[in-house]
Amino acid sequence: MPENDAILSVEDMTVTYREIVAVSRLSIHIKPKEILTIIGANGAGKSTTLKAIAGLEPVKSGKIRFKGEDITAKKIRERVDLGICLVPEGRLVFPGMSVINNMQMGFLRNPNRHRFNAIAEHVFELFPRLAERKKQVAGTMSGGEQQMLAIARGMMREPELLLLDEPSLGISPILVEEIAKTICRLRDEGMSILLVEQNASMALSISDRGYVLETGNLALSGESSSLLNDDRVRSAYLAI
Fold first, then answer.
1. How far apart are CA 123 and CA 138, in angstroms?
2. Is 216 left (phi over 0), alpha (psi -120 to 50) or beta?
């Protein structure tokens, strides 16, 4: 599929923090129904890239296009309404609310008011642990369960593009595997997913394509299978 048909295109984007360049002239694109991953060390600009796409960080130069529309200047809520959802690093669930109440918060901007039960049923199918804990207060759940809830809350808006920031951070290997399988299933169901991860092995094993960022600059890109076998990636990010 040509880049012009991408669901999201980031074109020559630069993001700065008080004149310090966090992301420099970055160009990436994600196709419909694919998992694209961005890997790199701490401070590489991965999370900044997601925040800029979601509207949480201003872009100094360049453009962001979603389904062909320039959204560079659009506000966060406008991007949500277009179909972009960010699940931030650290999960950030509402700790004093139950699982189902957290999901209701994610549903607030969904214009299809009759769809709550159907979407919730699908979420519980994807995350049976949440179905078992729907009345449990989120703050009493494990880190992995909270991560599942954060993704579930984002899904309640029925986004076309899901931005996932470090979903494996601080989670047991068993739950990381469960979340990875769910991410793949979402892709298979038609969702586009942009995954930022320090767990490069997991990210590259489930994604279709990948980008490697180093200090805000694009260092490598290609099919994930190729990056997994690239000596530079293996040495720097896979401990091989």
1. 16
2. left
